[in-house]
Structures are given as structure tokens and as C-alpha cells.
């Protein structure tokens, strides 16, 4: 069984597709699966069972990245092609079965859209793949027996970012002696690059030696292992939020100008705190500390 699985450019969408992949692996345990994804999402699948290899789709002008994919996979014979990007590619290759997601916005959560492709109700939850070496690395980065709170104060768009001082205040309340996670320390996570580092810097400065700076410093499988060690993750709508939910860690997603009905975190223990007026572009500052704290307490309870 040979499957070509064409998935997302962004980390969050890629993570959401892992539940479908997990279903395929369980349904056909001898299958060899080739992943086609964007470079940023490569690490989501790095530890995936049954992965034969990964094809990186780097976006090019005039959609020439599809020509790149053709060079890598177009002349192969496939038992199944799954195309979550709604392209024509699946219809141009030799395949016994084609499963293609239709384009355009659909009502409901993205996970439901994915499940409908195979008639799965409820849809399979995302999973996070990491190995023993990743777990050992996470134990080194987050040492000790006390609780850790993961914080994701960054995002790919500044309007989705909750104010840094509220992240700090929320951590103070959660880790206070009378809080739900007394004495907790903070693991600050974010993607690579100067923009995400700048978003996280005020939180790191305020928390000092109570926080570990992991922004742009670890690979995605290591980040998954770190998140799995946390007692709670609180973050803006981002790929890290979805990765945390996939590990099973209690995950609180903070939402302003993004579609919570489509992209709320999906996992065994998740919650959202939604800004008044969302999804208006300027709504995120309206999300209060009290609302986020109540959501976090409810999730931990």
C-alpha cells in the first residue's frame, strides 16, 4: 500500500491533519506514506510511523511548486492520493483511489472537514509524534518534579497576540501559592525569527529565572515532548497551540481575530478564551485577564 498525502504549508493545519494520518496508519498498518508539506511543517511528520519520505513544497510564483511535486511523485503509481489542498494534482497522477478536499471555506471545525473525507464521525483527534531522544531532551530542558506551564505568547500575525503583560499576570495567578499550579515554572515557546523573539521578549524579561527560553531554539518533535511535560499550555492561536492539544496536555487557546469555530484547539483536554467582539481585527486587547484565568481554572478542574 503506497499513499501520497498532500497536506498543509502551516504548522497548525499540518497538526490537524495528523489525526487522519493516524487513522490511515491504523487502517493499513503496512502502508508506506509519502508526505508532501510546506517546509515549516516538516517537523510535524519527522517521527511519524510508516513515513517513507517527505517532499517539501516551497511556494513558488505561478504555482511552480506543483511542478516540483510532479517531478518527485507524478510518475509514481499510488494506491491512494489524499490531497488536503484541493488541487488538481491528485487527478493527474496514476492512483487507484483519490481523496480530495474541496476548496473554499466550509462551516464547522477543520477537524470535521477532514473526517468527512473518509466518513469518520467523530473525526480522529490530532496526534503528536516524538521519540525517546525527544523526551530525554525535554527532560533536560524542563528539569525537576514541579509543574511547568507552557506559554505561547507569539503568533504569525501581531493582531492575534494577547498583550505580554497579561501573559505574565496570568502566569503569576496560576503559579501563586493559592493558584491551581503553585510554584510552577514557565516554558516560553515560539517559532524561529526576530519577529517571534520580539513578541516573547517582554514575557521572558518579566519572569526572569522562573522561565526557560525555548523560542526558536528547539525542533518541532522536541517542542511536542516539551509540551507533553507541561501541566498546562496557554497560547495564542498558533501552530504551537495545536501541537500542545495534540499531545494531550491541557491547552487553552486565546482567540481574537481568527475563526475559533474552525480552528479551536482539538484534543482530549482543551478550552478557549474568546475576546469580546471576535473575530474583529482589533478584538484581542479586549480579552481580559479574568476571562483567561477563569478558562484556565475550568480546564484544570
From TrEMBL:
SUPFAM superfamilies: UDP-Glycosyltransferase/glycogen phosphorylase. PANTHER family: ADP-HEPTOSE--LPS HEPTOSYLTRANSFERASE 2, TETRAACYLDISACCHARIDE 4'-KINASE-RELATED. The keyword rRNA-binding does not apply. The keyword Secreted does not apply. This is Glycosyltransferase family 9 protein. Keywords: Glycosyltransferase, Transferase. InterPro entries: Glyco_trans_9, LPS_LOS_Heptosyltrfase. The lineage of its organism: Bacteria, Pseudomonadati, Pseudomonadota, Alphaproteobacteria, Acetobacterales. Gene3D superfamilies: Glycogen Phosphorylase B. Pfam families: Glyco_transf_9.
Amino acid at each position: 500500500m503506497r499513499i501520497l498525502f498532500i497536506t498543509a504549508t502551516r504548522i497548525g493545519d499540518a497538526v490537524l491533519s495528523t489525526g487522519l494520518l493516524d487513522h490511515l496508519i491504523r487502517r493499513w498498518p503496512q502502508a508506506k506514506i509519502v508526505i508532501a508539506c510546506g517546509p515549516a511543517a516538516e517537523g510535524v511528520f519527522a517521527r511519524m510511523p510508516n513515513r517513507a519520505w517527505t517532499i517539501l513544497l516551497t511556494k513558488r510564483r505561478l504555482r511552480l511548486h506543483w511542478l516540483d511535486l510532479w517531478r518527485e511523485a507524478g510518475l509514481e503509481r499510488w494506491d491512494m492520493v489524499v490531497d488536503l489542498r484541493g488541487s488538481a494534482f491528485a487527478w493527474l497522477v496514476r492512483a487507484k483511489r483519490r481523496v480530495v478536499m474541496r476548496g473554499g471555506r466550509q462551516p464547522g471545525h477543520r477537524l470535521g472537514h477532514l473526517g468527512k473525507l473518509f466518513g469518520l464521525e467523530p473525526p480522529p483527534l490530532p496526534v503528536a509524534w516524538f521519540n525517546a531522544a525527544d523526551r530525554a531532551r525535554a527532560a533536560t530542558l524542563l528539569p525537576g518534579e514541579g509543574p511547568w506551564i507552557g506559554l505561547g505568547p507569539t503568533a504569525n500575525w501581531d493582531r492575534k497576540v494577547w498583550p505580554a503583560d497579561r501573559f505574565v499576570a496570568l502566569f503569576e495567578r496560576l503559579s501563586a501559592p493559592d493558584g491551581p499550579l503553585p510554584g510552577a515554572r514557565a516554558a516560553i515557546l515560539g517559532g524561529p525569527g526576530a519577529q517571534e523573539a520580539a513578541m516573547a521578549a517582554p514575557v521572558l524579561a518579566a519572569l526572569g529565572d522562573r522561565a526557560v527560553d525555548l523560542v526558536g531554539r528547539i525542533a518541532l518533535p522536541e517542542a511536542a515532548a516539551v509540551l507533553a511535560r507541561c501541566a498546562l499550555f496557554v497560547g495564542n492561536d498558533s501552530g504551537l497551540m495545536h501541537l500542545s492539544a495534540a499531545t494531550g496536555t491541557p491547552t487553552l487557546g486565546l482567540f481574537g481575530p481568527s475563526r475559533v469555530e474552525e480552528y479551536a484547539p482539538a484534543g482530549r483536554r482543551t478550552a478557549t478564551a474568546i475576546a469580546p467582539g471576535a473575530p474583529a481585527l482589533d478584538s484581542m486587547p479586549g480579552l481580559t485577564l479574568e476571562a483567561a484565568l477563569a478558562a484556565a481554572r475550568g480546564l484544570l478542574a
